[in-house]
Amino acid sequence: MLQVARLNAWYGASHVLQDIGLDVKQGEIVCLIGRNGAGKTTTLKSIMGLVKTGGSTIFKGKEILSEPAHTRFALGLAYVPEERRIVQGLSVRENLRLGLVASPAKKNEAALIDEIADIFPRLAERLDQEAVTMSGGEQQMLAIARAMIAKPDLIMLDEPSEGIMPVLVDEMFELFRKMKTQGTTILLVEQNVELALAIADRAYVLDQGSVVHHATAAALLADDEIKERYCSV
Amino acid sequence: MPGLSFDLIAMQLFTGLALGAIYVLFAIGLSLIFGMLTVVNFAHGAFYMVGAYVGLFLISLGGNFWLCLVAVPLIVGISGMIVERFLIRPLYGRGIDYPLLLTFGLSYIMVELIRIGFGTSGYPFDTPDLLQGAVNIGIGYFPLYRLFVIGAAAVVLLGLWLFLERTSFGLIIRAGARDPQIVRVLGVDVARVWLYVFGIGTAIAGLAGLLAAPLQGVIPEMGANILAEAFVVTVVGGMGSIGGAVIAGLLVGVVISMTSLFAPEMAKVSIFALMAIVLLIRPQGFFGRAGLMS
Hints:
- The structure holds two protein chains of two kinds.
- Chain A is of the alpha/beta class.
- Chain A folds into two domains: 155 residues, Rossmann fold; 63 residues, no CATH class.
- Chain A contains ten helices and ten strands.
- In chain A, a hairpin with a 2-residue loop joins strand 4 and strand 5.
- In chain A, helix 3 runs parallel beside helix 6.
- Helices cover 73% and strands 2% of the residues of chain B.
- Chain B has a domain of 203 residues.
- In chain B, a hairpin with a 4-residue loop joins strand 1 and strand 2.
- By secondary structure, chain B is an all-alpha fold.
- Chain B has eleven helices and two strands; from the N terminus they run H-H-H-H-E-E-H-H-H-H-H-H-H.
- The relative contact order of chain B is 0.20.
- Chain B has a two-stranded antiparallel sheet.
């Protein structure tokens, strides 16, 4: 589904991604782990086309490196940024509609909002509430729902559990598992390593802008040395 | 003060609302463009002036005012889109002062081109036949054309409100003004949206120029005059706020016309006093967000 090779990115003079290579297969949950500043967020932004990069990014067999973000969305790539980016001044429903404005699925808007409301009962109760007045966890649910509503093939999530109360985190990870069984492919960046590895198929460990380790989630979960060296904060 | 009856004051209030309606139309375009593109469009006055001249030109060719109401915004809006596409777009991402300087220079070029084409002196602009005369509005006879201006502004505002609140494109504009990046991530080609927003903003400025023409005549400098007042409107209402532009536009119109009733020589100064007072009490304006320019 997604093959990234020799991905390089710079912020000014600093070389923040160095020859990142990773691949994500159809139906997998793949996890990127590593310390703060290891380059996880920049990797996701690069794949979405929000950071200028060199190298190769192939999505569904097509080289997308020179495509802008909005074209990558149209190809079936979705991204939930770390800051959630719930739009102020819009209701929950309007934020969900925003996930459809550029999609051909827009004509089924009402049905798709009903469908997403079934998956996220917390949002269903608050459709006409101003979105930024909800709790952090509910806003995170909305950010995920907004990215999912147009039914992307691959969804990238940046730190979805950050700052959210544990009961909601469990609910959210249960949802990721369900999304996977329904065929959505997930690329996940997560600080909560144990939790992420528990639902992931494979994981890449990043450090200082490079991939330093790659293994199945089960193998990494058992590998205390790697976890200790690259993931402890 | 003898001779200043309640009716006279009420009439002057209506005159102020008609003047304010022009400011509102001018300032919502300015606000829409600033809110979405963060471009301070110093050429907005020039588009307003061009609107009046396009109307003058079309009527000299045998067109009528009603045709102008449709054709002028269309022509000015398309010119605005050409300006955005080829002059302003290359400057995005370089900071707020680049497009500001560009549009500032562009306004001089536009005024000079009009002077070359139409001469430096002004022209009168006839009030359309159907709208001549005055009607009794209960407190006295009020010029019909001014009522029409108030009505036309209300129609444009209602249309704009429905467009922003009820359509997908309006949703994109409202969201894009707050967070262009998330809109981009959700698949929207933001550059295309900016093009249309600039077109809509300048189209409304052109319409405002046309509506103002029968009231004030047409001169090449008319845009520069209203621009100063419109910036007061924008500062008082809050940068980038459409609701603020409406309320502040009407307020500035009323303040000018009331001051000119009591102390005509103070009319221009009064709005700057109003602005100073608002800035002292509420630096971000009525509806502005603090720190937008920082």
